[in-house]
Predict the structure.
Amino acid sequence: MRRLACSTILLVLGTSGSCSHDSTSPPAPSAPSRAAEAQSTGHARYTVVDLGTLGGASSGASTINNKGWVAGFSNLPNNQSQHAFLWRSGEITDLGTLGGPNSVVFAALAKSNRGDIAGQAETSAPDPLHENFCSFAGPPGFNGGLTCLGFLWRDGVMTALPTLGGNNAQAYGVNDRGQVVGVAETAVHDPTCVAPQVLDYEAVIWGPKAGELHELPPLPGDRVAVAVAINEQGQVVGASLSCGPVDPGRSAHAVLWEHGSVTNLGSLGGALDNVPLAINNRGQVVGFSHLAGDVIEHAFFWGNGTMTDLGPLPGDIQSFASAIDEQGDVIGTSCDVNFNCRAVMWQHGVVVDLNTLIASGSTLSLIGGADINDRGEIAGQGFDPRTGDTPAFLAIPNSAEDAAGLTAERVQSTARTETTLPENVRRALRQRLRHGRFGW
């Protein structure tokens, strides 16, 4: 998944070690440069691949590993339920569920380079407490009153992950060591929880051994926590908050767990919705945070104790960062006041509309950026104006020769594509982005 020589070992797992890394700012690309950065003065052009769906009108790519495997979610033909999918070598595969109608791969770090995929899926068992634990995660069918569990998909098999004694759990991130992070319910009935939530829940690490489960504490003063992403060093980011319906996109505090302790990453001025979504092997974190007043969210970059506002495209008002690679390139989404959104990349301090970098021939508008791999391939969600569908996309950087045609003036321009999206698409984007679902 992420590659960088480092000897940090997460002390919460009972080991020790040290790591020297500079996370002050996004690092410069290493030589030789990849196709996504053919010249220091320009970006690559991209060829866009429509990944299709599992029969419905919508799908979304959440994550892409260094093999080029893309995982995400797709509506089924009835558009009332969705399943997690894996796209590889031109074929899309339904990953199934744990017995219920729905499953989803949610976050940018839901995959590893060895092919593991983490997600959440409904079971066939009714939830005895009617919590709708995964209701934020998908279509109306996810409100069906069934229990929901985190899963690890490996070698064609989806395996349910255990809880902490409660009924439900969710999995978000997995690293190459086989450690999975997420959230699991305890058996404790907490009278402070906001309905319909009844049970306490904790941020957890499953593995790397089968059956292994470690709790991660919330910040002092908070009741519960959710772990969202983990890097190869075992550093984990997530949310710490009061007890309520589980939604990592609705948190009070963005946090980092390392060396057995939990650290508040701060905010961009707001008290709510401070959400980290990805961490690379340099310990650099991206996500989104409310500005002062708790109305507008902006993408952030966090490194070495400082949170920096990445901002939206000129003319837009909100932005959300969902992935960061080892070179410090950040992928996400920028939206105007009406939630007409565009997939974007922040590189060398400059935000670029990915739609301005597409080679001719694509019919898709790229409306949400979810993840980037070490080859510079980008995954996310597109919009097809011919059909109204919103399929997952894969953007593949073209040759260095093509990339050289993009000048410094183009990179530093304020170019922004203008696409007015249908109301149903804008409504779905609003829900997904504000729930932290890019990567989805």
Remarks:
- The mean pLDDT is 84.
- The CA atoms of residues 306 and 419 lie 34 Å apart.
- The radius of gyration is 20 Å.
- The longest strand covers residues 117-126.
